């Protein structure tokens, strides 16, 4: 997959999709599959255009969602799903002022669009005035084939990034993974904590997480990848009320592992939510609960590790 930035032209004819693609979930995957098929029919390559930053971060920051993925994770996933080109366009207030027609004209100046595919609810241009009907009208004028994709559904409701965000915020990780079509994961760097974990035989790798959206506070069965190896693990997300920590922490105990991994990058696939984080009266009680958590039969961890090549 080739990445195209603002100042570059994409001369090869493409079937272009436009959108944020946060999550690259099953709905997005179906769209990519359709675009690749269409690209074959039209003798073109497949491409996605995404705006950076997310348009709402520019236009209404207080309404902008916390994203499921970092830009790098999204790029890795798009590559994984077989896309040929990833076009990243800077979104600013000037671009937001373009009329729907000027928006399409602007894209056609830089990209050789032979086909265009967007989702049924796609809106674009000044005040979101453009929609799929506008695109159907503009397509013959600008000389590309146009089609839209209906929502992919799961259990009667459309699959969407916001539905997946709601699952994660609520601790329904398995549901989120089902909608994503692969295990939900976080990524971050291991940093030093208070060195208390080792004193209760429960060392935990504390992560500075790259992802914006964090799951509901609580304890999760998980799989962790560090230095290219996967370990069964258990993760706590929260504020550690027992020890009065400041800020939110994401920390993971890796089973059958010992060693120093400060500074290492860790990929964390969360599985089942086990319990809420609680405030205990003292460290001894906290330690007892953590060791009880360790002994809980974690059926999630009976599965194979999520060897999916994510990042
Ligand atoms: C499986 C597990 C469950 C945990 N549950 C709680 C909890 O319910 N309440 C709490 O205050 N801290 C909880 N913690 C976090 C501990 O407070 C924290 O790991 C410990 O204080 C060590 O912190 P350190 O990594 O900064 O040394 C949990 C940690 C793990 C690994
Ligand atoms: N099984 C393990 N799981 C997680 N971290 C481990 C493990 N064994 C050793 N470590 C190391 O110990 C550190 C965690 O120990 P801990 O006492 O909790 O320190 P900190 O408070 O700095 O996180 C990890 O960052 C890692 O470098």
TrEMBL record:
Keyword hit for Nucleotidyltransferase: yes
Domain Riboflavin kinase: 179-302
Cross-referenced InterPro entries: Cyt_trans-like (IPR004821), FAD_synthase (IPR015864), Riboflavin_kinase (IPR023468), Riboflavin_kinase_bac (IPR002606), Riboflavin_kinase_bac/euk (IPR015865), Riboflavin_kinase_dom_sf (IPR023465), Rossmann-like_a/b/a_fold (IPR014729)
UniProt-listed GO biological process terms: FAD biosynthetic process; FMN biosynthetic process; riboflavin biosynthetic process
GO molecular function: ATP binding; FMN adenylyltransferase activity; riboflavin kinase activity
UniProt catalytic activity: riboflavin + ATP = FMN + ADP + H(+); FMN + ATP + H(+) = FAD + diphosphate
Enzyme class: transferase
SUPFAM superfamilies per record: Nucleotidylyl transferase, Riboflavin kinase-like
Name used for this protein in its record: Riboflavin biosynthesis protein
Pathway: Cofactor biosynthesis; FAD biosynthesis; FAD from FMN: step 1/1; Cofactor biosynthesis; FMN biosynthesis; FMN from riboflavin (ATP route): step 1/1
Function, in words: Catalyzes the phosphorylation of riboflavin to FMN followed by the adenylation of FMN to FAD.
Family the UniProt entry places it in: Belongs to the ribF family.
Keywords of this entry: ATP-binding, FAD, Flavoprotein, FMN, Kinase, Multifunctional enzyme, Nucleotide-binding, Nucleotidyltransferase, Transferase
Source organism of this protein record: Acanthopleuribacter pedis
Domain of life: Bacteria
EC id: 2.7.1.26, 2.7.7.2
């Amino acid at each position: 997959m080739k990445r195209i930035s603002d100042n570059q032209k994409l001369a090869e004819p493409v079937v272009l999709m436009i959108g944020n693609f946060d999550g690259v979930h099953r709905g997005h995957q179906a769209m990519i599959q359709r675009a690749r098929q269409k690209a074959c029919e039209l003798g073109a390559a497949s491409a996605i255009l995404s705006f950076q930053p997310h348009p709402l971060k520019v236009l209404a920051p207080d309404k902008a969602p916390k994203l499921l993925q970092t830009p790098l994770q999204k790029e890795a996933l798009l590559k994984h799903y077989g896309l040929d080109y990833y076009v990243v366009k800077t979104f600013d207030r000037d671009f937001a002022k373009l009329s729907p027609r000027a928006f399409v004209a602007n894209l056609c100046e830089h990209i050789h669009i032979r086909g265009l595919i967007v989702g049924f609810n796609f809106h674009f241009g000044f005040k979101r005035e453009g929609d799929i009907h506008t695109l159907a009208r503009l397509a013959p004028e600008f000389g590309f084939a146009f089609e839209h994709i209906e929502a992919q559904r799961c259990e009667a409701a459309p699959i969407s990034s916001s539905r997946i965000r709601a699952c994660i915020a609520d601790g329904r990780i398995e549901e989120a993974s089902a909608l994503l079509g692969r295990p939900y994961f976080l990524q971050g760097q291991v940093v030093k904590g208070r060195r208390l974990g080792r004193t209760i035989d429960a060392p935990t790798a504390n992560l500075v997480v790259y992802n914006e959206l964090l799951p509901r506070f609580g304890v999760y069965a998980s799989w962790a990848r560090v230095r290219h190896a996967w370990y069964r693990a258990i993760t706590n997300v929260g504020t550690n009320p027992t020890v009065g920590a400041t800020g939110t922490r994401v920390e993971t105990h890796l089973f059958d592992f010992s060693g120093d991994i400060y500074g290492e990058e860790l990929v964390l696939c969360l599985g089942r939510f086990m319990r809420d984080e609680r405030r205990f009266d003292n460290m001894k009680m906290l330690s007892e609960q953590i060791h009880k958590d360790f002994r809980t039969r974690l059926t999630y961890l009976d599965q194979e590790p999520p060897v999916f090549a994510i990042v």
